[in-house]
Amino acid sequence: MTNSDAEDTPVERFPSLTTSRLTLREIVPTDAASLLAIHGDREAMRWFGNDPITSLPEAEQLVKTFAYWRKPPVLGTRWAIERDQDHRFIGTCGLFRWNRNWKSCTLGYELARDTWGGGLMTEALQAALAWGFESMALNRIEAQVHPENAASLKLLERFGFVKEGLQRQAGFWGGEHRDLLQLSLLRHEYRAPSP
């Protein structure tokens, strides 16, 4: 172990996480094509908050953006979600916009459309949220969700997220201003969903 290793905190080292079916790991340049497959899928990105990307260079830039979050001072963490059975990159999830003084951040996630409905994002978020409360010392995790994104709202409510209100025309994608529901989860409210 080097001196720099000894001085690293758990937040500064990239936090790889494991669940029963998944590995949450660092997003690396070789993941760009997999990111493009997901972020280029208009239906998968319908409620994501950005227009779908259309080229490999855009995906490569997204990899760089997620890597930038990890540069000191760490702004957040975005994990690649890799399915253990076939080592396939199936999506990402992350905690970003970290405000250390307020002990808060924002949650984001997306999953390849052909893997929807299998409980994989529930499994990934359970690991990510627990890590955020423990290693980042968070008290509050926020999420913004389109009011028509019923699947995402149901997922967050299973963890204990509470709707706080409507942010009028807070988002802009697909050429339209869009309302977003503001939700939050406080440390003492967090609960792991039942299987």
**Total number of β-strand segments?**
8
Which spans of ≥5 residues are poorly predicted at pLDDT below 50?
Answer: 1-8
Q: Strand content of the residues, in percent?
A: 25-35%
| Helical coverage, percent range | 25-40%
**Termini, distance in Å?**
39 Å
Task: State the shape.
Answer: globular
Tell me the number of helical segments per DSSP (H or I, 4 or more residues long): 5
> If you compute it from the alpha carbons, what radius of gyration comes out, rounded to the nearest whole angstrom?
16 Å
Main-sheet strand order equals: 1-2-3-4-5-6-8-7
Q: By helix and strand content, what is the structural category?
A: alpha+beta
Overall mean pLDDT stands at 90
The biggest sheet amounts to: 8 strands, mixed
Report on this model:
The protein is built from 5 helices and 8 strands; from the N terminus they run H-E-E-H-H-E-E-E-H-E-H-E-E. It is α+β, with helices and mostly antiparallel strands. Helix 2 packs across helix 3. The radius of gyration is 16 Å and the shape is globular.
